[in-house]
Amino acid sequence: MKDLLTINALTAEEIEDILTLSAELKKKQKNRQMDCPLIGRTLGMFFEKPSTRTRVSFEVGIYQLGGQAIVLPVSDLQIGRGETIADTARVLSRYIDAIVIRTFEHKIVEEWAGHASIPVINGLTDMHHPCQALADVFTIKEKKGSLKGLKLTYIGDGNNVAHSLIEICAKTGVDISLACPKGYEPDKKIVKDAIEDAKRQGSSINIIADPIKAANNADILYTDVWASMGQEKEHKKRLKIFKDYQLNKKLLKSAKPDALVMHCLPAHRGEEITEEVLEGTNSVIFDQAENRLHTQKAVMLRLMK
Ligand code: CP
Ligand code: NVA
């Protein structure tokens, strides 16, 4: 494992190992047992889209492991004036020990990884959000005890978060059902590849148009924004298209009584999720956000040590 660009590039064993290590790191942090396995190491952070959780949890995480972070705003780098990714990646590889990239097209992180000799971590692209998916299954395992045989229902846009969830559910034996409006289903190739992994784990992937049917008997209900970063101009149009794909009380009734409510955040209350469900007793959304810190520390340890 040199980079973390997609969940699909990880084996089931590597995911299991990251989850185990994340639990150890979380326990250590709660007990204030600090050691510094990444002392002297530097993490670069190159973000072409806004971020609260990813940026802060990586920055705090590397400090807690004894290393340091440098935030590299596009506007401050020569890349903003046309220096190539290839040259920037090769130069930065001489100074820093790993880099987190948040960008638009997925091929941009692949280009970074192709030229960098250091690990490249995908902090979100238009197609994938692997760091989020690791924290998500870690949270589910923490709350439910195990993963295999659970049913996760994702409601809304077949976007980056949905893609990484599909891949991680397939690799960890979680059944996933997705309810998306017509034309907003997840990428066909990602689903096709994940079906192979799901077969190996004895789990299933279902794309269902009706959200209530999709949520039937679910152990986890998950949603994300209707318009992702970069799709702001489509927001108004999407409000109409997605209006029946809201995580609300009615949908929650279709799931198991102890179903977990999850959202990667940031949330748009009253759009993809109602205030009462987001703040309700089934919600584990803020634990899920916290767990970004613990799982990303595990990723950094595996890639940078
Ligand atoms: N969930 C997530 O990645 O949040 P940020 O956009 O705040 O990093
Ligand atoms: N799908 C959202 C996730 C934000 C963390 C986006 O890409 O904007």
Structure, explained:
Helix 1 crosses helix 12 (about 285-305), helix 2 crosses helix 12 and helix 3 (about 85-90) packs across helix 4 (about 105-115). The chain has a five-stranded parallel β-sheet with strand order 7-6-5-8-9. Strands 2-1-3-4 form a four-stranded parallel β-sheet, with helices on both faces. With about 300 residues, it is of the alpha/beta class. The protein has twelve helices and nine strands. The mean pLDDT is about 95. It has helices spanning about 10-30, 55-65, 85-90, 105-115, 130-145, 160-170, 190-200, 210-215, 235-240, 250-255, 275-280, 285-305; strands at about 40-45, 70, 100, 120, 150-155, 175-180, 205, 220-225, 260-265. The structure holds phosphoric acid mono(formamide)ester and norvaline. Norvaline binds near residues 160, 161 and 225.
Which descriptors would you attach to this protein?
about 300 residues; alpha/beta; 5-stranded parallel sheet; 4-stranded parallel sheet; 12 helices; globular; binds phosphoric acid mono(formamide)ester; binds norvaline
